[in-house]
Amino acid sequence: MTKLEKKLRAALRQIEIGAQDKVVVAASGGADSTALLDALARLRERKGLPGAIIVAHLNHQLRGEESDEDERFVRELAGQLQLPVSVESIAVAERAAAEKQNLEATARRLRYGFLLKTANEQEADFIFTAHTQDDQAETVLMRLLRGSGAEGLRGIHRVIELNEKVKLVRPMLGVTRAEVIEHCEHCRLAFRADSSNLSMDFTRNRIRRELLPMLRTFNPRAEESLARASGLLTEDEEFLQRVAIELLAGSRDGSHLKAETLRTAHRAITRRALRLWLRAERGDLRRIEASHIAAIERLINGRSGRCVELPEGWMVSREFDHLRLSRAVERPQDSPEPVELEAGQRRNFGDFSFVLERRIGKERLKLETRGGAGSFIAVLRECGDLDGLRLRTRVAGEAYVPAGSRRAIKLKTLMIRNKIPVSQRDVHPVLATADGRIVWSPGLPVAREFAPDDRDGERALVVVQKPGKA
């Protein structure tokens, strides 16, 4: 039994692979995946586990005839091992160009999408990839050069839950590339060599062929040391992530975050909570960098109304004490068309429902203004100016003198003071006279000229309900 087989058997025990489990193995035809397939097949023959092995190969169509030869090799290997094989072909370069995405990132996304689809179709429990300790070292160095934090320096995760049923497992992260070659030579296994691995245009290849050999002159076991450091960071990061999850839960207000709660935590925890929030709301963290997280952190102590633009058309804005994530390029809400508000008739305006009552005596008014929870109520001075009232949205720069004030205040300022979210201000209803003077807006003070006093015998009443308010 080779060193690879011994380490693989130990890894299967650790992740509790049983005789009833089905495993999809990603096979490129290279030495790593060929060795993994062969060792798994031998373990299954001797120990009866895993219960079933399905070979999966995605032809990326990136290297012409060479890619087709890889596909043929994997099909023949699966036949020799008497294993079922699933193969798909995708023109990855064309997809990346059409989507204007990075080629490597597109290839990775399509590859894992194909593997998950295969696992679902085959009702498999696990997907195995043949990443080794050397791959782990290369990944840690790549991320270190990019300035990644502790989460990125964890490197390649050993186990990831892709959905409720399927887990992605890297069972050879403790296996060196030298041990892979040793297994292939011992078992006389042929394998394919990817010519793109020789290209110095790729950062990973330069790290593999230039940086790691130099590091070995300082420490002959550089890869092992990097993998060990990654393991220690993983333990630390798992603890910090648990604390961040608790902070995120405590700061959530629906899909928004409460800035006041985030301010109570250490920055290291806040940063992680923000990343968890963005991943949950966006669906991924693609193209989100440390600079974006730092900018969102500044919003926590910033003023309401400020925002941070994120890649792919997203935006985080500060709305009073909340952080709100939205599409920066999403179609704005259509402003409702102005409508007349007549006494005794219900009028809908956007998300609001209005009822106007005229000439109400003081005794009846006491009953009417009890209202319901969530209602907006305005008591107005009964006068002829209330004939022809109209519901409309705000006009840029307009102002009025609110009750209790002696000077005009901009409508925008009053909306800020009364916590009307910036995302809602352009569709928030304004009640105005036929000649355009502001009478009132839900959540804001009544205009002073329409506020009743004790000398008024009859009054008018506006009751507003907004869906979602109880």
Question: Can you describe this structure?
Answer:
With 470 residues, the chain is an alpha+beta fold. It folds into 3 domains: 3-226, HUPs (Rossmann fold), CATH 3.40.50; 254-327, Uridine Diphospho-n-acetylenolpyruvylglucosamine Reductase, domain 3; 339-465, Phenylalanyl-tRNA Synthetase, Chain B, domain 3 (3-Layer(bba) Sandwich). The chain has 15 helices and 21 strands. It has helices at 3-14, 31-47, 65-80, 92-99, 103-122, 133-146, 150-153, 177-186, 203-218, 222-251, 259-262, 267-282, 290-300, 362-368, 411-417; strands at 22-26, 52-59, 85-89, 126-128, 159-161, 167-169, 252-253, 256-258, 307-310, 314-319, 322-327, 339-340, 346-349, 352-360, 376-381, 390-392, 399-400, 409-410, 430-432, 438-440, 459-465. The strands form 5 sheets. A 6-stranded mixed beta sheet has the order 3-2-1-4-6-5, with helices on both faces. 30% of the residues are buried. The mean pLDDT is 91.
Please render the helix and strand layout as text.
Elements: H1 3-14, E1 22-26, H2 31-47, E2 52-59, H3 65-80, E3 85-89, H4 92-99, H5 103-122, E4 126-128, H6 133-146, H7 150-153, E5 159-161, E6 167-169, H8 177-186, H9 203-218, H10 222-251, E7 252-253, E8 256-258, H11 259-262, H12 267-282, H13 290-300, E9 307-310, E10 314-319, E11 322-327, E12 339-340, E13 346-349, E14 352-360, H14 362-368, E15 376-381, E16 390-392, E17 399-400, E18 409-410, H15 411-417, E19 430-432, E20 438-440, E21 459-465
Helix pairs in contact: 1-2, 2-8, 4-5, 6-9, 6-10, 10-12, 12-13
